[in-house]
Amino acid sequence: MRAEHLPRFPRALHPGAWWLWAVALAAAASRTTNPVPLLLVLAVTGFVVAARRTSAPWGRAYVAFLKLSLVLIVVRILFQALLSSGAQGPTVLLTLPSLPMPDSSGLKLGGVVTLEAVLRATYEGLQLATILCCVGAANALGSARRLLRHVPGALYEVGVACVIALTFAPQLVTDAARVRQAHRLRGRDRSGLGALRRLAMPVLEGALERSVDLAAAMDARGYGRTTDAGRSSRRVTATLVGAGVLGVCVGVYGLLSGSSPDWLGMPVLVAGLLATAAGIRVGGRRTGRSRYRPDPWALPEWLVGGSGVLAAAAVFLDVHRSPASFFLASVTDVPPVPVLATAGILVALLPAVAAPPTPVPVAVAGPQADRSGAPRGEVAA
Amino acid sequence: MIELDRVGVTYADAPAPVLAGVDLDVPEGELVLVVGRTGSGKTTLLRTLNGLVPHFSGGTLHGRVLVDGRDTRTHRPRDLADVVGYVGQDPLAGFVTDTVEEELAYGMESLGLPSDVMRKRVEETLDLLGLADVRDRAVADLSGGQQQRVAIGSVLTTHPRLLVLDEPTSALDPLAAEEVLATLQRLVHDLGLTVVLAEHRLERVVQYADRVVLLPGPGLPVVSGAPGDVLRDSPVAPPVVELGRIAGWDPLPLSVRDARRLAGPLRERLDDVRPPAEPVPQGRLVAEAADLVASYGRVPALAGGDVRLAAGEVVALMGRNGAGKSTLLKTLVGMKRPAHGRVLVDGLVPADLRASELLRHVGMVPQVPGDLLYAATVARECEQADRDTGVTPGATLELFARLSPGVPLDRHPRDLSEGQRLTLALAVVLAARPPLLLLDEPTRGLDYTAKHRLVDILRDLAAGGHAVLVATHDVELVAEVATRVLVLAQGEVVADGPTADVVVSSPAFAPQVAKVLAPQRWLTPTQVAVALAEAAVTP
Lengths: 381, 539
Fold this sequence. Notes:
Largest interface: A-B, 48 and 67 residues
Structural class of chain A: mainly alpha
Number of strands of chain A: 2
Oligomer: heterodimer
Distance between the termini of chain A: 30 Å
Distance between the termini of chain B: 55 Å
Number of helices of chain A: 14
Helix content of chain B: 25-40%
Number of strands of chain B: 19
């Protein structure tokens, strides 16, 4: 058995597996406003991130996304309670001083705040927050940048552009901070439009110079050397991939929205996937690039990705069978616990043990390994 | 390996060619050093070797460039990627991926090499360049020397026959530079690679070179030959060569070791002469920092330093990268408030001052002088500075013209040479006449001529009552201009004293002349020349 099939052997999991797992959970969350499965999804992502995140900078993404989601829920409640005039319920929590607004605007300012409105806002906010946290988990577990390495050959240029953008964006922020500090040295403490212009000039000029340097370096290192294909082949690739991606988007929308006709879901998605695959195959033939140490897709990847897909499938099936327990008729009732969906979501906990632990550098691991395992005599010898 | 046949380069819209009639023949396995003043076309020459000029830069190339039998007219840079490895001035700007290992593999991926070959070559290159410990690290987090080695490694993996490097050590501290140069020498000696490199800091590289190509500037023919011969009359020369010229040694020494073996008689002649005692300036106390503690998150920066700066002093701040030099400058200029301790400039706390008041008390030229500049022309930049500081209109321009005469005023600041841009930033900062002036790494990218100008300017400023603090790695600059040296290590001041006391005995910070003439305390060739001339007059 090769090392990559062992869930215990430390290595970085294929980022695609993490993203598949997280996106599947997000899709599951998008089908319900019942807080029970939503909170369960949140708990699952949090647990897996705590167990398997890396110490790299992006490993902290989950906490950032979690904070953002809390803010989102609070904002949602405030808007619903204070501003929306529709869908208030009978249970009045408190009455705020109100400003009269014309009825036609559909708005109110202040006035009665009802339990129903607050709860509904909380549940809807929770749904968005859960989806956000899934994205955060994907970021924390599999670096987006490493995911871009797996862009197929036909889309290689797009992938490179994305990687460069990911590098340049933080660089721009550091540059801007540096230039701002420098402007203090010239005795400028006022802010405003003029200050912005003076900031933008050196930062943008610097960015432009760096791009030209990078382009020269890439050219000198053989970029684009093997990708000279005929114009027609390039056009075929672009058309196929473009149409395919569009098809996938429409298909996914059809599947998730729940209210669109059946033919808009699966059939369009499959057609889109086929077109994309064909385009990528045609385009892939023209690139003569090879790939250094591609991430393997082995047993742990199947387990991680599969557990996410299974969870989503269970939720979708359950929604199909008993929609009432996913879209609550009365928000003040105790929310029901959908059994199948709950079981499915719990399966998504699997990566906490099935994904390989993240490796630590050898120099750090050495003494620890000695302490825990190897017999002393061997080390001394 | 390289054949240049009457090569000339004219950029679009340029009135005169950058290079004209260059003939050059470099056999395999040589280390060629390209020298010349700023703007003499060094970078252009290097870029013709892999076709970046003219394919990437535009412009017209006359004559013929043959590299390993391939003509750059018909081969684009990417077609030469397996023959020529090109490393540009800023290694960080050339990195395409984000970890060391992927960066090493990038070139091979572009060439479509099979995966087992790539795997083997990456491991070999990691070992060859001593990068195995950092293989998984992000390139942006590495030290300058490591980044430069990654940049070299990333072009080596395609197994080129020729390596071209543009100023590989100019941004590095002396020890990191040695690291990179030792690597290059190993590549030349063990792998038989041909290496062409341009460098301003000749004192670091000239001893390793088999051949020197001197670009004397527009209109003059290119000189190429053995280093000793070319440097005899070169306008740019390292201090050890200048000392050799003064002492009349033949052949000219290129390294400290050669010079030391020739220096016996000179040391005897200088035995009765004492080096001129640097007058210790006794100006008023301009700035004072006591018990400074500062950190960035969990990264410690300053751990209790005491610094006092008096009017009339030029103090050099030395220490390896990350020793806390920049942080000390930042606390003095109020950009960073220390976590503990006291900073007083002119009796005021700089972090409390408003920017418009601050610049009357302390001025700083940052590591990238261009950060200070944002106007479209030199003239407008100076007018802006007049307005910012409230001095009489035209004063800044006058100051700039004195510091750097003959610069067209309608030039965009980005189009100036490094040295001119530095003096423009200096003029802008000095317009308000701050008693304390801070410079962060000012000699990066400066040629010897520009450096001499800077030395003169700094001496004038000190004589005019300014206190000057220069953070630098450049030991020769320190020897020329500093009256006192502060050495920082791990955020603490580990040495503080007159220049000669601190640098003469230090292996890393001693200038070449001090190394040649130790234990005598001479620092610069000029000191020796003056002493010899005086000794000749009064026997």
